[in-house]
Amino acid sequence: MSGSGDPGRGARAPVRVTVLAEGPILVEGPVEVTGPDGTVRLCERPVVALCACRRSRHRPFCDTSHRRHGGPVGSHRDPSAPR
Predict the structure, then answer these.
(1) pTM score
(2) Of 3, 41, 47, 52, whose CB is crowded by the most CB atoms within 10 A?
(3) What is the pLDDT of residues 34-81, one digit of tens each?
(4) Tens digit of each residue's pLDDT (9 = 90 or more) over 16-30
(5) Phi and psi of 18, rounded to 5°?
(6) The pLDDT of residue 69
């Protein structure tokens, strides 16, 4: 992908994205997020947490719902196992 970048990006450094095993997707900000309906939301935080569990009430942003429900949707975690 490095050779087919957007010519409008210039020489900017790549954006760092970190996918956590049982949590959100962390994106170095600021970021502009476009939703499926075309709504654009700007978040100017240094790190933005995007929901990966699909339980957040503030999607696409994480509201830590994954913590209350024991992990991502579809995870088969033993509820009696220590965290």
Answers:
(1) 0.63
(2) 52
(3) 988 999 999 999 999 999 888 888 888 999 887 876 644 554 444 444
(4) 999 998 889 999 989
(5) -120, 120
(6) 65
Q: How far is CA 19 from the centre of its chain?
A: 7
User: Both tokens of residue 10?
Assistant: 């210039």
pLDDT, position 75: 47
DSSP 58: T
CA distance 23 to 17: 13
b/e 23-42 (16+ beta carbons within 10 angstroms → b): bbebbeeebeeeeeeeeeee
CB-based contacts of 28, cutoff 8 Å, min separation 6: 15, 16, 17, 46, 47, 48
Strands 40-43, 31-34: pairing is: antiparallel
User: Across the strands, what pairs with 61?
Assistant: 50
Query: Token pair for residue 38?
Result: 């075309």
